[in-house]
Write a structure and sequence with these properties.
With 141 residues, this protein is α+β, with helices and mostly antiparallel strands. It has two domains: 71 residues, Alpha-Beta Plaits (2-Layer Sandwich), CATH 3.30.70.20; 52 residues, no CATH class. The protein contains four helices and eight strands; from the N terminus they run ββααβαβββββα. The strands form three sheets. Strands 1-2-3 form a three-stranded antiparallel beta sheet. A three-stranded antiparallel beta sheet has the order 4-5-8, with no helix packed on it. A hairpin with a 5-residue loop joins strand 4 and strand 5. The radius of gyration is 18 Å and the shape is elongated. It starts with 8 loop residues before the first strand and ends in a 5-residue tail after the last helix.
């Protein structure tokens, strides 16, 4: 079977471009239930970038649980031409090699510069970050 090309749709206004990857969508309905003026599955195209302010659109896109919706600032598209690198280390953490802003479950926001190691084994005492506990529990993945 031939590899299928990923479908990616982009919708823009003067400030941002909303990117939609339908294959990632889990149909949680958060987008249209939260902002039907922009995200309306009955319309074609289903995203109307003139339906709300840029800030409101960004806020709603950030509620997408699957990552199927994302956005880029217009000036960021050129500036961020390099891709974020994510490496899944054998029997170890998930390494994200980029500046990362992390919002913890308590709402606290933290910025990690250049590299962040996220726990995959579940045994870390420093979640969501890796503390090396995978070695102690003989984690395999």
């Amino acid at each position: 079977m031939a590899d299928q090309k990923e479908v990616v749709k982009e919708y823009s206004n003067k400030d941002i471009t909303v990117v939609w990857k339908p294959d990632m969508c889990i149909h949680s309905k958060k987008c249209w239930q939260g902002l039907i003026q922009v995200f309306n599955p009955k319309n074609r195209p289903w995203i109307n970038m003139d339906g709300a302010t840029t800030k409101r659109i960004k806020d709603q896109v950030e509620q997408c649980p699957s990552g199927a919706l994302s956005y880029m600032q217009k000036n960021e598209a050129e500036k961020n031409s390099s891709k974020i690198k994510v490496q899944c280390l054998e029997n170890g953490p998930l390494m994200v090699k980029s500046d990362v802003e992390i919002t913890h479950s308590n709402g606290e926001v933290e910025v990690r510069k250049k590299t962040a190691a996220f726990c995959r084994c579940g045994a870390s005492n420093n979640k969501p970050f890796c503390d090396g506990a995978h070695s102690e529990i003989n984690f395999k993945a």
